[in-house]
Amino acid sequence: MRESLLNMVRNLTIFLFCAVGAASRAEAARLTLDDPVASWSRAPTTDRVDFATRMGKAFSSLSPQLDRDYFVRCLEETANIGNPRDTKLEQAVKICVSVHQAADE
């Protein structure tokens, strides 16, 4: 069960990475899965809300609680607690999904 969930998260992440990578130049300033977590705190609020909304839409099929507000809170905590170093937003999103799934079990 857990392994299939992790595979699903990985596949969704790959899909999201491809979808975000195909964004137009007009959207180049937006946060992407490839950005470092440290960029979250420096990004404008609109970019953070936009990123969290995209993640909420992508992962809400796993659980309705994985919405924009959840990702805003989780990514905010991830970016502000400890030293994220070279951690990418992709990894932070995976952590957020895993923490939520573990809390549901």
Question: Would you kindly provide a written description of the structure presented here, covering whatever features stand out?
Answer:
- By secondary structure, the chain is mainly alpha-helical.
- It has one domain.
- Helices cover 66% and strands 0% of the residues.
- It contains five helices and no strands.
- It has helices at residues 2-21, 38-42, 45-59, 68-80, 89-104.
- Helix 1 (2-21) packs antiparallel against helix 5 (89-104) and helix 4 crosses helix 5.
- The longest helix is centred in the N-terminal third of the chain and has 20 residues, at 2-21.
- The chain is globular and about 35 Å long.
- The N and C termini lie close together (11 Å).
Main attributes?
105 residues, 66% helix
Secondary structure topology:
Layout lengths: L1 H20 L16 H5 L2 H15 L8 H13 L8 H16 L1
Helix pairs in contact: 1-5, 3-4, 4-5
What is the compact description of this entry?
The protein has 5 helices and no strands.
What is the total number of structural domains? 1
Largest sheet: none
What is the percentage of strand-forming residues? under 5%
How many helices in DSSP terms? 5
Please tally the β strands and state the result.
0
The helix fraction, in percent, is: 55-70%
Radius of gyration: 13 Å
- Span between termini: 11 Å
